[in-house]
Amino acid sequence: MKSRLLGRLDTDIKAAPTPFAADCLRCERAAYLARQGETDEVSRELEALRKRYSARPNSELSAWLHLIEGLLCHYRDLSSNARDKLTRAHALSAGAGLKRLQALSAAWLAHLDYLRMDAASMARHVAEALSLASADHHAALARAKLVVAQAYHDGGRFDLARPWYDRARLHATADGDDATLSAMIWNMASLRVAGWRQKEACEPAALGADAQAMLSADSTAHFDDMLGVKSLRSLQPILRAQVCTLLGRTDEALALYLSHLPQALGQGMRPVEGVLLADRAWCHLRAGGVDAARADAASAASALLLPGDFCDRAPGHSRLAQVYESLGENDAARAQRALATTAWAGYRIDQARLVDALDSAVGATPG
Fold it and tell me: What is the per-residue pLDDT for 227?
């Protein structure tokens, strides 16, 4: 199914009043395709645009090209190079007084800030995007409001996240931006799983099976299949594997981890390698694979020693404690339990920091 946004952009390019206006629309089209994972087509478009403007550089085109390159880096493998490209797009657009591009690049920088749990920078970039974007700049407003929604959600305040999700959905729908709608489904599903993990580790008495988590994981995969999205596709089966593990369907989870984990790690999931290997160790153990469980547990423990966010490390240590307890390795289990306690406490501080930063920058009610 062809994206509604792509259809509109194709029509607008043909009707553009000037060649330069058409090229700016081509940039917008390439940015969308980058998010869908159409790497080859986007690369060809970038090369053509660079050649066309090599003898007469233009600030707006240059800013667009940096933004597109940043999105390519992010959606290819979550590369850290994306930040440098998007920062350049932001600086160029701000220096040239291009408010629409500045708002859009600020919104994407807020997205990257959120991923590395930089609450203060995220809040600044969100506030900038929301203040600069006009009411009809749906691309910037959808992304900025989605960042707010997922940060509130991650902070344990889904009550505050819900209206921001609703506003982001309205902007994406108005723009025909199916890729953002797909991202919203993915974010809500992955954050539901994260919340379930936290409850499993910290409030086991309150834990119940979350059927919606599996429905959400399946929905994001089906929606991307319908749109033909190619970017970061190995993350979908890994999300399903995590849900299956939480549901106790460990044979199904193990098959998914064995088939898709190597590719997922190559597509940017290296920071969460520890928790995924800990899950796989648990699945091996439930299947009777004691030696494989020990090997994965050792690799997971090593991965969790590397620098990383508390939200990624805490569930890994909790799962490893469970694995080592089942293996009868009580000293290792106690050590992992202590590390988990520290990491969960750190994550709760990070959650509070997200909520406080957003409350100060944008307030709880979206405009």
Answer: 44
